[in-house]
Every structure is written in C-alpha cells, then in structure tokens.
Amino acid sequence: MRVISGEKRGLPLKAVPGSTTRPTTDKVKESIFNMIGPYFQGGLALDLYAGSGGLGIEALSRGIERTIFVDQNRKAIETIKLNLKQCSFEESSEVYRNDADRALKALIKRELAFTVIFLDPPYAKQALVNEMSIIADFHLLEPSGVIVCEHANTVSLPDRIQNFSKKKEETYGDTVISIYAFD
User: Fold this and answer.
1) Tally of domains in the chain
2) CA distance 173 to 154
3) What is the pLDDT of residue 183?
4) Compositional bias (Basic and acidic residues) at which positions (predicted)?
5) Does residue 14 fall inside a structural domain?
6) For residue 158, what is the DSSP state?
C-alpha cells in the first residue's frame, strides 16, 4: 500500500494490523481519484471509516488542504497517526477515535462543509443511505463536493438519496465504488 500520486507519490503506507480492516487496494484508490479529481485546489476532506487513512492521505497528497480522519478502532487510529507522520501531514489533519454516527453529530456542531467525503464502512456494518441522509440534512457537503462510497457488490445503492444523485459507479471484483454529488 502506498501513496499513488501527488506531493507524496510513492511513499509506503502501513496497513492496520490484524484482519478486521480491509484496506482499499492501490488499483481501486487510483480509480477513485480518476473519477473524482484527480487533483484538488485546496478543500476539506472527511475520511469517515479511515482504517489506515489511505484515502484521506491520498487526498492530501493530491491537493486537499485538510482531512479529518475518523475510525472507532484503536489500532486504526495508531496506524493513521503513523502514516500521517510518515507523510508529514500531521499539521493538515485531525484524527478522532469515534463511531460514524457520533462523529457526524460532532461535525454538524462545527458547521463544516466538505469537498470530498469518503464512506468505506466494514461491509457487514453498512449504513450508507442513513449516513448520506445526515450529510444532506445538515449540509456537510459543499455544493460542488462529492461523496465516495465503497461497498460490497452485494449492496445496491439507490440512484438518488435525498438531493444527491449517483454520478458514477464502477465494480472491482467484490468492491463497488459509487460516487454521489448534488444534482
């Protein structure tokens, strides 16, 4: 696992120890950024089920100004911090150990709007439609922003979730990437 492109291209990233976290493969990560970017002129990202932090770190390397990383697993938080240090991104990131629901509620209070939101929950615990509804209800995505959902190919997400519509969907083996944005 590595940073694919941008300022920190080629730097290796550590995976979360154990088998509870499923890292996004380099091939899928590259495809995601080809669909949504591939580069950014600043902005704020949210990596809600951050795992090793690979997606949020890739966004930072490609020009996102700041990324908020959230995961409820202690080992994941330690791995994110190690990877941020490896890439010298500690100053442009925030890392929180929390579950997704509580994290979204905390972000609502801060009145933030994100350029890109990564939702890559454990496949067995997906609540993507509910989480996107919260994002819509509380204006957590800026008008030109995108939501990237990574989910199992056994999950079919609707074409519309509130005022978001599915713009792209690609399948990579048992993984599906669905990109949502405002109409």
Assistant:
1) 1
2) 11
3) 85
4) 1-10
5) no
6) -
Helices (H), 53-117: 54-61, 74-87, 100-110
User: Inter-axis angle of helices 54-61 and 74-87, to 10 degrees?
Assistant: 20
Residue-wise pLDDT tens for the chain (183 aa)?
899 999 999 999 999 987 767 778 888 999 999 999 899 999 999 999 999 999 999 999 999 999 999 999 999 999 999 999 999 999 999 999 999 999 999 999 999 999 999 999 887 678 899 999 999 999 999 999 999 999 989 989 999 999 999 999 999 998 999 999 998
Residue 6 falls inside a structural domain: no
Residue 62 belongs to a domain with what CATH number? 3.40.50.150
Please name the residues in contact with 86: beta carbons below 8 A apart, sequence gap of 6 or more: 11, 12, 13, 14
Would residue 12 count as lying in a domain?
no
Task: Render the burial of 12-50: b for 16+ CB within 10 Å, e for the rest.
Answer: ebbebeeeebbbbeeebbebbbebbbeebeebbbbbbbb
CB neighbour list of residue 102: distance below 8 Å, 6 or more residues apart: none
Q: Which of 83, 84, 127, 124 is nearest to 104 (CA)?
A: 127
Q: 10 Å Cβ neighbour count for 55? A: 29
**Residue 59 belongs to domain spanning:** 26-182
**Residue 138, domain member (yes or no):** yes
